[in-house]
């Protein structure tokens, strides 16, 4: 079992993370956490905002992109960062989650979008793993 | 993976990978670079991404990258792909998320000596008049109906609202309005994000700079543009903000199903595309053109903010505080242009991702008062270093579909830059070298440190040496404002 939930990967212009999880729910939660860590200092975020997210997609990669994009969109609209993720159901095509977050006191970077670049969810001995590249 | 030995050097600046290198390539790949910049291209995934680009249906001649190339997502940055407009595809990945990110140059009639006593006041006034940073609202708020008008009409809308002068419009690529914009093809989220951000700089590598012209290389072109040594100018670098990001995001997802529907084989999903003439391709073009127009208006409104700041600080203190627009160029765009292919005039969809149009003298798209010399090209350097004004040359029509470089090009990741540089130290260094700094985030400042970029002079010498865009003037910063 790896200690961290994600690691940063070098990318010339944008931000990339490698993320893993024992199952799809953990992979998706860790990807969202890794993204939040790019946006702000997650330890400083006081939970106040709760949102329910319900998504469908034709395949699991698109589901992951939609999930992270949804968090970005809701976060930007409310000026909050989501740092706590309760994924009650994740299949390769559907997702249901309750997410919690709070105001961002200091912005780190602005993520414009979640890309499909290098995105490839693979099965490993420990579960699932992929790289996610963010356009910043 | 291609390596350096797979490339043939055709001349000093041209390196070609034959199309047989990979089975799915439709055309050869070309890198335009001197030997050092060529070597640098193999430090990341630039070449692989360009090979992927060469597989797009309808691509003609070759997939090419200019000397400021670096890794992007899907297409590389600094990439140009010309695609047959009747049989080919259009790709949101070939434009990028910041649709019509670009540069505007405004010139004053003042010399540095006249402005020097007011430099700090001017930078503070610019910081107030030109909103920057994350999520910040712009100078203008529009309602839904006004937004649709703005998206359809671009700079003409700004002119009607009293937010532009006629000569600003004349001195903007496409006169600030890309035809074919269709607001009905834009999603609700993009429109929602667009309402509040008109006239805002944003963050990341976007900036507003107060510069002085330190060298003039081409007296005739400089004279036509109204540039001279010692003159104070303002550069504005930004794009279509959250509106454009959302348009790209929506269509990267929407077009995934079109790839299957039209049986297009892609080596990378970020290259997602649709036939230009299909309903899906037309929808993307209509929405992308809206974002192009949004960005033209955004820079226009910021230009008015810069004029307001100059007036507030300098009125009554100097002889003339006006700012005249020299030009505005896009560097993330797809547009229809006529070019010669195999001796025939052909309508092409030119994708420029981190590349600038550079049309030559006598081209009808060049403003009448510049037509004898060619189109101005604005090439910003990294923060604290020099920027250049170039002018388009006929050779660009032969080699690069009328395109040239857009900037210095990154060589180092943001994470590495942050590890190597402290924002506060960088600000102190810039201030010590005589550059006033206004920044909303010190981490953001560190990520844009000059050491994370290529040497812009080397990039510019390459395109000058190739003969596609000639050097006109060099600008050096006196004040930098970062989002």
Description:
- The complex is a heterodimer of chains A (136) and B (483).
- Chain A has 136 residues and is of the alpha+beta class.
- Helix content of chain A is 26%, strand content 40%.
- Chain B is of the alpha+beta class.
- Chain B is 33% helix and 26% strand.
- Chain B has 17 helices and 19 strands.
- In chain B, strands 7, 8, 9, 11, 15, 16, 18 and 19 form an eight-stranded mixed β-sheet that branches. In chain B, strands 1-2-3-4-5-13-12 form a seven-stranded mixed β-sheet, with helices on both faces.
- In chain B, α4 (119-129) packs antiparallel against α12, α5 (144-153) packs across α12 and α10 packs antiparallel against α12 (279-314).
Describe the structure concisely for a colleague.
The complex is a heterodimer of chains A (136) and B (483). By secondary structure, chain A is of the alpha+beta class.
Based on the model shown, name its key terms.
heterodimer; A: 136 residues; alpha+beta; Archease, Possible Chaperone, Chain: A, domain 1; 3-stranded antiparallel sheet; 26% helix; B: 483 residues; tRNA-splicing ligase RtcB; 8-stranded mixed sheet
Q: Strand-residue fraction of chain B?
A: 25-35%
- How many angstroms does the end-to-end distance of chain A come to? 31 Å
In total, the number of strands of chain B is 19
Structural class estimated from helices and strands of chain A: alpha+beta
Percent range for helical residues of chain A? 25-40%
Biggest sheet architecture of chain A? 5 strands, antiparallel
CATH superfamily heading of chain B: tRNA-splicing ligase RtcB
Low-confidence stretches of chain A: none
Biggest chain pair interface: A-B, 33 and 44 residues
Number of E-type strands of chain A: 8
CATH architecture of chain A: 3-Layer(bab) Sandwich
Q: How many domains make up the coordinates of chain A? A: 1
Question: SSE order of chain A in H/E notation?
Answer: EEHEHEEEEE
Main sheet: strands, sense, barrel of chain B = 8 strands, mixed
Percent helix range of chain B: 25-40%
Mean pLDDT value of chain B: 95
